[in-house]
Design brief:
The chain has 16 helices and 23 strands. By secondary structure, the protein is an alpha+beta fold. The strands form 7 sheets. A 4-stranded antiparallel sheet has the order 2-3-1-4, sandwiched between helices. A 4-stranded antiparallel sheet has the order 11-12-6-22, covered by helices on one side. Strands 7-8-10-9 form a 4-stranded antiparallel sheet. Helix 2 packs across helix 3 and helix 11 runs parallel beside helix 13.
């Protein structure tokens, strides 16, 4: 009964692999709260029809935040994506995807096909470019806020002047004030070259970032974005991803077997951060305050907050979304030591004042510019960013805050969950835009993949022929067990969500050859027992029992090697280790239990004088 149940489940969970995915285009909103309706899908479908691209079907996601358009041919994915992107505009994320065709009754029990690696049916490939100019600007803004705080703490009167690129400017009324400011700034910061100038009756101190600091900012921005992208990929739960730098300002991301490329694209490229600022006091100078709208509107008038920043989302070490006592979404924040110190210092002396939490989002847009191409001026689209800041929370400080607190005022649980994910994964040091996006086909070509499948079939037939020639009827039993082993292996890989790669197919071929090792040991032992003169039934019993220890030892050592390969290897090595390790587990079951059950059912308990072995 155990064997029947296991085999039935194996067939059930291996069955979805017979249903290939449809090439598709997935549409979602640029914001986590934006919904997709049939109207958007109809617009996209009509645009595709006008472009001569055949559509197989459309569907709206269960959560209403995404839509799927199934295509007939995979070769039409890229042109279809371009057509839909032009039709819907910048407010939608349009990405290539593969739509499952597994029947609903299989999906209802958690059955799905294996994830295939980039070298088989692909996944998605992104090439992201870091906006280094923006990285420098962001760092200059941070330095500006810090220098202002330093001058105020030293009680040095100054006047803020507009920045010039990577140069900060501060005006002073007297030489004495300028010299004092120069001394305290030089003692705290070695990132600037300090120069002096006169302007409109003021003594101006100019702080210009050094070349070494500029190089360090660029290098840090790329490393920080690389770490953040890796963390976000891990949050997405993608199997065997590839995330690596390319050149001085680019990052390559390959996501094999990804199911939601639109969501992946939106999360990977999104720049979300927080700023914590005090609410502006009445009659505060206009130069020291800024005005922002509330996120989502809510019919509330804009609010004024101080320009000085208490801290940003970079100091967040953990963020979890849940619900407050009234059932509204919130995000629980934990800060690092420095962030907790800044928050304590700011709130200790401002109890009773308001503190605003600003949500910062940078959306990628396309702008048309005139550019010379092949000696002629042409209008081309170039990527650009629009920064949007809005208030998500403005609450009165009731007591001194430390390194743990919560953010409320979010529109939906989805928005709270996404904000927590982005903060938990780490903020981007600078915005990134997608310079290349494509679905990866078989990297070794369809011919090599077909050869891999053929190798599996030839290996299986060669083993079966050998077993039948050497062990006759028992060889047929071993062949049946080997077939069931392959079904169980596919089912286990599908159930665990393992990624099948081309080296993984090599692991399957090797597993098929190794799986009959146990049967060879058992059948050879049975032959030896019969040759020594014992009865057939006794020989069968001794053959299975006495061969078990050798089978167990041999498979455990191989399994140990497979685990080490998986733990220490990467890429193709891991794909090979997965199929090898899982194949050993399934072969132990099929070669010992299934084979013994079939032998017992066919000749067990009978008065047989001679075996056809």
């Amino acid at each position: 009964m155990l064997i029947v149940v296991v085999l039935a489940l194996g067939v059930l969970y291996a069955l979805p692999n017979l249903y290939p995915d449809d090439p598709a285009i997935q549409i979602s909103g640029s914001s986590s709260t934006q919904t997709i309706s049939e109207a958007e899908l109809d617009r996209a479908r009509n645009a595709l029809a006008g472009a001569g691209i055949e559509v197989k079907g459309t569907e709206v996601g269960s959560n209403g935040r995404s839509g799927l358009i199934r295509l007939v041919s995979q070769s039409q994915q890229l042109p279809a994506q371009d057509v839909i992107r032009r039709e819907l505009g910048q407010d939608y994320v349009v990405a290539q995807n593969l739509a499952p065709t597994t029947p609903d009754w299989l999906r209802s029990i958690g059955a799905g096909p294996m994830k295939l690696g980039l070298d088989l049916s692909g996944g998605v490939h992104f090439l992201l470019e870091v906006d280094m100019d923006r990285a420098v600007t962001n760092r200059v803004n941070v330095y500006e806020s810090e220098v202002r705080s330093l001058l105020r703490s030293e009680r040095i009167r100054y006047r803020s002047l507009p920045n010039q690129g990577n140069t900060l400017q501060f005006g002073f009324e007297t030489d004495e004030q300028l010299n004092r400011a120069r001394g305290v700034i030089a003692a705290q910061y070695n990132q600037f070259q300090l120069t002096e100038a006169s302007r409109e009756g003021l003594e101006v101190l100019r702080l210009t970032l050094t070349d070494a600091e500029m190089a360090e900012i660029r290098e840090y921005s790329l490393r920080q974005n690389l770490t953040t992208v890796r963390n976000r990929v891990n949050e997405l739960g993608v199997a065997e991803p590839l995330v690596q730098r390319q050149g001085a300002n680019r990052i390559v991301v390959e996501l094999p077997g990804v199911q939601d490329t639109a969501e992946a694209k939106r999360i990977l490229g999104k720049t979300a951060n927080l700023e914590f600022r005090l609410a502006a006091e009445p009659n505060a100078p206009r130069a020291t305050v800024e005005t922002f709208e509330f996120r989502g509107g809510e019919g509330r008038p804009p609010a004024e907050v101080e320009r000085s920043i208490i801290l940003t989302g970079d100091q967040v070490t953990d963020a979890q979304s849940n619900f407050d006592e009234n059932g509204r979404p919130q995000v629980n924040i934990r800060l690092d030591g420095h962030g907790g110190e800044l928050m304590t210092r700011a709130t200790r002396n401002n109890i009773g004042r308001g503190m605003a939490v600003l949500f910062i989002e940078q959306r990628q847009i396309s702008r048309e510019v005139e550019k010379e191409v092949d000696g002629q001026m042409q209008t081309v689209e170039v990527p650009a960013f629009v920064e949007e800041k809005s208030i998500i929370s403005l609450a009165t400080i009731q007591s001194t805050l430390g390194n743990q607190f919560r953010i409320t005022g979010l529109d939906s649980p989805a928005e709270a969950s996404e904000l927590a994910l982005l903060l938990r994964a780490g903020g981007l040091a600078a915005p990134m835009y997608f310079v290349e996006e494509r679905t990866i086909g078989p990297s070794l070509g369809a011919e090599n993949i077909a050869k891999g499948v053929t190798a599996t079939q030839v290996g299986f037939l060669a083993v079966l022929v050998f077993m039948v020639i050497v062990y006759k009827a028992f060889g047929i039993i071993a062949g049946v067990a080997l077939s069931l082993n392959l079904v169980l292996l596919l089912a286990l890989m599908s159930l665990l969500g393992a990624t099948l790669t081309l080296p993984g197919i090599a692991g399957i071929v090797l597993t098929l050859g190794m799986a009959v090792d146990a049967n060879v040991l058992i059948f050879s032992r049975i032959k030896e027992e019969i040759s020594s003169g014992v009865s057939v039934q006794r020989a069968l019993h001794e053959g299975f029992d006495k061969a078990f220890s050798a089978i167990l030892d041999g498979n455990l050592t191989t399994l140990l090697v497979g685990v080490i390969l998986f733990a220490m290897g990467s890429g193709p090595v891991k794909g090979f280790a997965v199929t090898l390790s899982l194949g050993i587990i399934t072969s132990m079951f099929s070669a010992i239990m299934v084979t013994r059950a079939m032998v017992n059912l066919s000749v067990g308990g009978r008065d047989i004088k001679k075996l056809w072995l």
